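Project outcomes to date are best conveyed with an example. Our students and postdoctoral researchers have been running inverse folding experiments weekly, and each run begins with a structure described purely in tokens. The record below, which covers 183 residues, was selected by the lab manager from last quarter's runs and is presented without edits.
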């Protein structure tokens, strides 16, 4: 097994230990969305998509929302922390430095995008939130917090990605109603 395959296995193991129940599903679903958006996505994009939220699975290292006065600052800190953790893991697995740097940059920007490659990770992440995270997030956080999170996630998407979100449907009528208020 080469270092990249061992790395992917390690990332999967770390994420599987998250206290957030949707994290393992979200990691795989973000990768799946990336591959739908860009079927020929390279290793850096795939690793970044799969591991972009890795810090949430590490209780002692994760950033906490309550430590930040605004959501954007929290999300930036989260992205940077996940990037640092992934970089450390990749270095432990002797991954080529250029690949490490590429993944680091992508994960640092996964909440905001800013260039075509980072935008792909941001879009795949947002699509996955609406696709698989939203029902569990709503159950845990309630209407108001979920509404704010949906508005934040929706506004960062391109028009094309917003059209995909509009096609989503949920088993919970309250969630369907909530999402409609975001459009």
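After processing, the design step wrote out the following sequence:
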């Amino acid at each position: 097994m080469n270092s990249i395959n061992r790395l992917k296995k390690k990332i999967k193991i770390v994420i599987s230990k998250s206290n957030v129940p949707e994290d393992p599903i979200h990691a795989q679903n973000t990768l799946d969305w990336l591959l739908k958006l860009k079927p020929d996505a390279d290793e850096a994009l795939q690793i970044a998509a799969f591991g972009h939220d890795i810090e949430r699975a590490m209780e002692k290292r994760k950033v906490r929302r309550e430590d930040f006065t605004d959501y954007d600052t929290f999300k930036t800190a989260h992205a940077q922390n996940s990037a640092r953790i992934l970089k450390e893991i990749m270095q432990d697995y002797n991954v080529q430095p250029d690949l490490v740097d590429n993944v680091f940059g992508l994960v640092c920007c996964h909440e905001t995008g800013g260039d075509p490659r980072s935008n792909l990770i941001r879009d795949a992440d947002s699509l996955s939130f609406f696709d698989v995270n939203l029902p569990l997030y709503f159950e845990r956080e309630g209407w108001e917090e979920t509404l704010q999170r949906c508005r934040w996630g929706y506004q960062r998407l391109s028009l094309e990605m917003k059209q995909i979100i509009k096609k989503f449907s949920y088993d919970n009528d309250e969630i369907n109603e909530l999402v409609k208020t975001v459009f």
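The helical segments are 3-16, 23-37, 43-51, 71-92, 97-108, 116-155, 159-166, 173-182. The longest helix spans residues 116-155. The training component of this project remains on track.
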